[in-house]
């Protein structure tokens, strides 16, 4: 893979990978690690993609899988955030905002809601990217919306 091709991929997809990773992990630092992991995989084993859509789908699926792996890792489950250990307050979404409510959802709901509403993918496209059945993604979207609605109602915002 040429340097220009690698730079194009990073410029094109790094924001997408960072935002998707953040929806899973709720940590900018972890999201940055996932971003590096995705692009390193691509650099170590260059792939030929059939189309730009195939390229984007591979990157999204690789990022989602890397996030899931990190969430399952023993290190991730047993570590403490530096801000918590240091007693420093980290910036939070404004209480009662939609962002705060979305961040309270489990990772599988946050990811599909992000891809559906912010990236504009259909449930079928999300299913292909995440390796799920379209019905599963539709169910996750429905349950995610329902949980989000409940959270917003509890806050008196819906």
Which descriptors would you attach to this protein?
158 residues; mainly alpha; 9 helices; 75% helix; globular
Tell me what you see in this structure.
The chain is mainly alpha-helical. Helices cover 75% and strands 0% of the residues. The chain has helices at 3-25, 28-44, 52-72, 74-78, 82-86, 98-103, 107-118, 123-130, 134-154. Helix 1 crosses helix 3, helix 2 (28-44) crosses helix 3 and helix 7 (107-118) packs across helix 9 (134-154). It is globular, with a radius of gyration of 17 Å. The termini are far apart. The relative contact order is 0.11.
Itemize the secondary structure elements and their pairings.
Blueprint: H1 3-25, H2 28-44, H3 52-72, H4 74-78, H5 82-86, H6 98-103, H7 107-118, H8 123-130, H9 134-154
Helix pairs in contact: 1-2, 1-3, 1-7, 2-3, 3-8, 7-9, 8-9
State the end-to-end distance: 50 Å
**C-alpha geometry:** globular
Q: Could you describe the largest sheet, including whether it forms a barrel?
A: none
Q: Which blocks of ≥5 consecutive residues have pLDDT under 50? A: 87-91
Could you write a compact summary of the structure shown?
The chain is an all-alpha fold and 158 residues long.
